[in-house]
Amino acid sequence: DSRKAIRRIGNTTRMGTLARDIKAMSSMLLRHHGMEAKVDWVLGHAGGNNNKAAHVLASKKEDKRSVPVLQT
Fold first, then answer.
1. Distance of alpha carbon 46 from its chain centroid, rounded?
2. Residue 66: C-alpha distances to residues 48, 61, 63 (Å)
């Protein structure tokens, strides 16, 4: 559940690898570029015209378990 993942970003004792990476990247953005990152949960794309295509793309991305890396 994406809400669970977002809550973990704020809980340093139960933070997984992805949450730690997100927190580190957001800290780097603030420190080096003065930019603040905000992570919010939004209702899924259920019922939208492009729901099936979005689901297929999200499933493919999830299988790769990749995380984009912010380079400075």
1. 19
2. 26, 7, 8
Reference 2, options 56, 62, 57, 47; nearest CA is 62
- Model confidence pLDDT, tens digit, residues 34-69: 988 877 766 665 666 666 776 676 666 554 455 455
Q: Does 26 fall in a domain?
A: yes
Residue 27: which domain range?
2-64
In a domain, residue 19? The reply is: yes
The pLDDT tens digits of the residues spanning 15-39 come to 677 778 888 888 999 999 998 887 7
| Dist CA 24 CA 4 (whole Å) | 18
